[in-house]
Amino acid sequence: MNLKEYLTEGLNKCNIQITEEQTEKLLLFMDIVLRENKKFNLTAITDEKEFIEKHIIDSALSIKYIKNEGKLIDIGSGAGMPGIVIKILRGDLDILLLDSLNKRVNYLDNTIKELNLNNIEAIHQRAEELSHDDEYREQFDYVTARAVASLNVLLEYTIPFIKKEGSFIALKGSKGEEEIEQSKNALNVLSCKIIKNHKERLPYSLSNRDIIEIKKMELTNKIYPRKQAKIKKAPL
Q1: How far apart are the first and last CA of the chain?
Q2: Model's pTM, two decimal places?
Q3: 214: which strand partners?
């Protein structure tokens, strides 16, 4: 099975259909990541088929729970997963990629240009600082984050960006239920609730994935997020 078939069949098994153009762009994105990996240390996965399943398909699972068009911010974008994958699959979304390392933001900028993507940009800033800026605070319909931090910590970084009634889509491994249990106080303090922990499975390795869908019910108290040191020392 060639790489194109491996990608499209894998997504089909996850009930995601894509166009020829999207397939080509996703494979080009993989090529860019693997090429730039030598400079930026973007991923430990360098086998192409493993990359397709554990990065591209894994990231693509999130689009099943992004129902409407709107603005999305991807926190801790790193190599561009899931943010760039989402953009390729959902061109109707206006996407902001946020990363705290300037060299990764430069890489993201160059990748966006090479893929010829529109209405997507990368910004160099820390989430706990940017979300206190009125230009960004409570301005997004969706927030995504993948492999960034535990859910109770992640909620404080992400929820302030979301509009009331907006959604946080947290891409997790197989321990989502444990993280939800540990996040009850954070969910209460930040006025949001779990809509559902969607149980997914990668198509070839059959590894389990939890996509946790969280809805913001009320505007966020201005004291959140706190400084990074406080979040680390005393998570909600």
Answers
A1: 47
A2: 0.96
A3: 168, 194
Q: How far apart are CA 219 and CA 202, in angstroms?
A: 35
* Residue of 205, 184, 182 whose CA lies nearest to 193: 184
- How many angstroms separate the CA atoms of 18 and 61, rounded? 12
In the block, residue with structure tokens 């098994």: 13
Low-confidence ranges of the chain (pLDDT < 70): none
Among 119, 128, 141, smallest CA distance to 100 is for: 128
Q: Is 82 helix (H, G, I), strand (E, B) or coil?
A: coil
82 closest CA partner among 178, 236, 209? 209
Number of Cβ within 10 Å of residue 146's Cβ equals 22
pLDDT at 98: 97
Q: Give the pLDDT of residue 160.
A: 98
Take residue 129 and report the two structure tokens written for it: 């600082």
User: Do 52 and 78 meet the contact criterion of CB atoms below 8 Å apart?
Assistant: no
90-123, pLDDT tens digit by residue?
999 999 999 999 999 999 999 999 999 999 999 9
Q: Return the structure tokens found at 1.
A: 């099975």
CA dihedral 75, 78, 82, 83 (to 10 degrees): 70
